[in-house]
Every structure is written in C-alpha cells, then in structure tokens.
Amino acid sequence: MFKLPENGILLHIGAPKTGTTSIQRACFRKKSELRELGILYPGDSESHNWAVARPAGYPDDWMTPPDLSFWQALVAEVRAETQKVIVSSELLSNAGSNEAQHIVEELGIDRVHILLTIRPLAFLMPSIWQQDIKSGDTEPLDIWMREVLRGPYADRERIFSPWIMADFADAVRRWKNVVGANKFFVLMVEPNHPDKLIHDFEDLLSLPQGFLAGEDGKPENRSLTYHEAEFVRHINMRKWGNELPNELSLTYPLSVIRKFTQRVPCADEERLRLPTEMLEKIVVFAKEMRDQIAETGVNIIGDINCLMKVPPPIPEGSVCGSDIETISKDMVAAMVEAILKPTVSDFNPLLRLAQIPIYTWMRFRGRRFLKAAPGANIISEINSHIKVPSSKPEGNACGSEVATISMDKAVSMVETILKEMVIALNEANRLVQPLTRVLAGYCGPIFLKFASGFAKRLLSKK
Description:
Elements: E1 9-12, H1 20-29, H2 31-36, E2 39-40, H3 49-52, H4 69-80, E3 84-88, H5 97-107, E4 112-118, H6 121-134, H7 141-148, H8 162-166, H9 168-179, E5 184-188, H10 195-204, H11 226-236, H12 246-249, H13 252-260, H14 276-295, E6 299-301, E7 326-328, H15 329-340, H16 356-371, H17 375-385, E8 404-406, H18 407-442, H19 444-460
Parallel strand pairs: 1-3, 1-4, 2-3, 4-5, 5-6
Antiparallel strand pairs: 7-8
Helix pairs in contact: 5-9, 9-14, 13-15, 15-17, 15-18, 16-18, 18-19
C-alpha cells in the first residue's frame, strides 16, 4: 500500500463530486486529533477552496479573494510544518499547467505529493448535473446529457464545463508533469463501497482504521433526488438570484440548497438515472480515459476498471428525464424553512461582520412574514396537508401517505417567499453598504479574517 512520507505534503486536488467533501469534513472534524498524531490540516475552514481560488486561476467574478493574502497565509503555515500536511481543494483539478507548477513550487516541490480522487463516469455525470442545478442552472437533464455525449473535447469554453470537471486523464497529465508519476496518487472511489474512500485515505496517511469515520453516519453533501432537482430547477427558472445584491448573490442561494438537502427524501422520490444508450456511450469514454491514466504510470489505489462501472438504467415507468407535475409538500416545507431561516454561513466569508445587520434584518422580516398574509396562508396550507404518522417507515421521511402539491403551485409559493426575502436583503444591504465598503476597501485582509471569525463565534451563540 502507498504511504505518504513523514514530511510529505498531500495536496488533494479533487476532482469535484468524488467524495472531496467527505474527506474535507472528516479532516476538519478531527483536526485536533490529527495534530496530536503529527498531521497538520491548516486553516480554519473545512476546505481550502477560498485560499487556492486565485492561484488556481479562477476569475474575479467567481467567489475569489481580492488578493493572494489567504493563499500566502496557507503557504506560510504549511512550510512552517516539518511533519505531514494535508491540503484539500477540488478547485485545483481545474488549474492549468502553469498554475499547477506555481502552486507546487510555493508549497515545496520536494515535499508535495498529489492525490486525485476519481469516480465512475456514469455515476459522476448525473451528479454534476444536479450540482449545476444547485448552483442556479436551468437546463433539463435530457438536454444537458445530449451535450455531454458530444464527448470530452466538444465544449471546453466554460470554466465549469462537465468534461473539464470529469476529464481525469487531463488532470493527471497536468499535475504529473509537475511532481512526477511516483509522487502522484489516483484513488478510485467505488460506488458500492462509499466507506472505502475514507479507509484508503486513512491508509495513505498511516492512520488507524476508522479514525476519520463520520460521527452520525449521514452522507456528506448528499445529491439531490430527481424530484428535488426538478423543484430547484423550476425555482431557478424564476431567476430570483439575479435580484440579489452582489455581496450575497454567490452565497445565499447555495446556502439555501445546502439546508434544503438536510431533509430525508420520501421513499417515492427517484434517484437520478440515465437510459441504457447513454450509459453505453459513457462507458466508451471511460475506457479511453482508463487507458490514458494507466499510460501515465502514476500510482493507482483501487481498481481503475471501476471507472467503467454503470448504475442501473432508467426503469420502466420512471419519471427521470421527464417533467415532474407534483411534488411532496414535505419538500416544499423544507425549502420554505431553508429560505426563511438564514444562518451566518449564508453570507460572504470576507464580510460577515459587516453583514450582521443584514442577517438580523432577514430573520426579523422572515418572522414577520410568517405571521402576516400571504406568508401565514402559505405556511398554514403546507402544514395542514403534511401527514406525519406516529412512526415513520425507515428511509421515508414523509410517512406511508405522501401529500403532494402541483409543481406550479409549489414554485409560486416559493417565489412569493423569495420575493419577500429579496426585498429584505436589498433593504438591509442598502443600510450596511457604507460599512461594507470601508471594511472591504480599507481595513485589509488580516482584519477581515479576524472579523469573519468573530462574527461566526458571535452568531453561533444565538
């Protein structure tokens, strides 16, 4: 089994949707325990996305820090450590060759080892679609998949093109050319053995088996069901995110979805599936990618042939790929709660202290909306129809009888609430804008980092 050297830096570069969140949350949760074993997980957040976004070449209109100070702070902390270090960000798999070279040299080219986690393409592609939906996309699954099936080199214009995220062979070549094949690890994530990812990661770091295991057994960053994805997609079509102030437009919609996915799906909600002909074509791409990775001579953990595994195809009578006419009222209730109960993580991490008035005003407006029409009518209508039996069947949060509502009506309800919250956001943003400008323009990154941590501690007590 491959092992990271005692003074090695493990640079986990993704790829996105391959279990990166599970690894990051496990390392962050066990940060103190890892330190006692001589392993540093630097920084004060779950992932290192914020620090690496600018050196990895992400554009200014993305959620990118204003300068390199966060990256420089990460580099200083890493280089000061003489034992093992873990740095993890799925954004790095997209970095170009020049950016990869610079990042490795900054961290210490003699110590850096690269880890790329990969996943069967036929499982990955539907997962990327639903992640796009979480981020505000509106393209239906069938149209999106037709674009994917044009192949890995058909569309490379968008920074988040599906094949840019899923072309593992290209990521291997770019980063292997920097560190060499012997310091590059490809970890195969097997779909039927999700725990194996964490176990293999533990082995790579010479950690005891089960050291990084989750506390509650719940999946990290779970995917949307097809019903949930269609609900979110229809909400996205109303373009509500375009009405948000710039400081919140990248964070608030995503945080709403993050809270929404904390619900347990009803038993009749289908997982994303693809038709047989699409799966067959994806397998052809996967075989080519497997051969290209094998030719590079990098270290492979697991069975690389898993790259060609396929999930069951769409069963007869499935709704996947078609319009959903009705959804459960439990789902609508979960979305409403996610919108009306903002948390500190909904806001720009650089400006959280300045945005405490926004947070406070939103919660006030949310409570007021619940008591007045049409908010009270919407909540009453949802609550009066949800059936919650005394004991819920395992795996079904909605009970044996699932109350439903038409998709159009559900989206209209949510749109009414979103409009109210957008008004509240804009009102509060106008009040706090002068303070935001001062903090962003004059106080410097050190104070902003302190302010972010202070705001998080302050609000977590409420």
